[in-house]
């Protein structure tokens, strides 16, 4: 049992919180030994300001302390490496309001050339965004992730994965995984069957990656879990559900022109309402000038079926213009003007909520 005397009445840490904070402190305080083990610890975070609904009666103006991301990598041997990512974020469900969360903890074994086994908690390799970016906003091309990450994308997986990278002239890559269900937690999965992912990609030229993936998870009971960005079970449906996801990604980040397209097709089947089909399309296009400046546009579209029972059905269309300034190699400022239309009905209807928002973000890493 760990006892911690709270000298500040506004700080409330339970035993798990204290242990994680202590682990982070030990990482910082062991710099010399960490270098000897070829261990690297990096920290990322961001601040944000938003003015929501610029022309409405319910306008809001507020500052936000974003996620604080502790990212550690270590080569344990010539063939075995570790990657860990712990995020401290705002959590309204806890008394302290901020709580740590282990986002990734994975061991990788390079068993033959560019072929590897990975075991642990990882990002599900369903698209470019989830495979390349972590929780540090410093690397995001936009201020936020695509809307599909809040409703459709299974962000995390816990289990086993086979991976190949940079194979042949086209730099072919593959990922095959068997992991716990969307509705599982980080320590238990009540389902006998596992979710499966199959993903492939090529990198035919410098800065370009083209990929496709398929994900399937049969859930005997639709309930909230720990591995999805969306809240399974929010619809109130607790019966069996077969979850299928197909993704296609195209990314090119050249010297000047940048483009990222994420296409998502989700097909869910229940005994209650039958088949629901959900679609999402995210498109980012930017132009980099004078090395440190990027002007960009964003199109983010999501259309959910009226038969959707896995999560709360919502339809979104976002149009945005933004500017990014990389004033330091490890510090970026972004400003983004958005038109957001959302509602539980199909888009372009007058009764959907429309707001015009402006957001500023300062992201850093060291």
CATH architecture group name:
Beta Barrel
DSSP helix fraction = under 10%
> What would you give as the CATH superfamily?
Porin
Widest beta sheet: strand line-up: 1-2-3-4-5-6-7-8-9-10-11-12-13-14-15-16
Distance between the termini: 34 Å
Question: Explain this structure to me?
Answer:
The protein has 366 residues and is mainly beta. The chain has a single domain (49-64, 105-365), classed as Porin, CATH 2.40.160. It has three helices and 16 strands. The protein has helices at residues 15-29, 31-36, 128-132, and strands at residues 39-52, 60-75, 80-90, 98-112, 115-123, 156-167, 172-179, 195-202, 208-219, 241-253, 257-270, 274-289, 293-303, 315-328, 331-343, 353-365. Strands 1-2-3-4-5-6-7-8-9-10-11-12-13-14-15-16 form a 16-stranded antiparallel beta barrel. It starts with 14 loop residues before the first helix and ends with a strand.
Question: Any chance you could write out the topology, listing elements then pairs?
Answer:
Blueprint: H1 15-29, H2 31-36, E1 39-52, E2 60-75, E3 80-90, E4 98-112, E5 115-123, H3 128-132, E6 156-167, E7 172-179, E8 195-202, E9 208-219, E10 241-253, E11 257-270, E12 274-289, E13 293-303, E14 315-328, E15 331-343, E16 353-365
Antiparallel strand pairs: 1-2, 1-16, 2-3, 3-4, 4-5, 5-6, 6-7, 7-8, 8-9, 9-10, 10-11, 11-12, 12-13, 13-14, 14-15, 15-16
Keywords for this entry:
Porin; 16-stranded antiparallel beta barrel; 366 residues
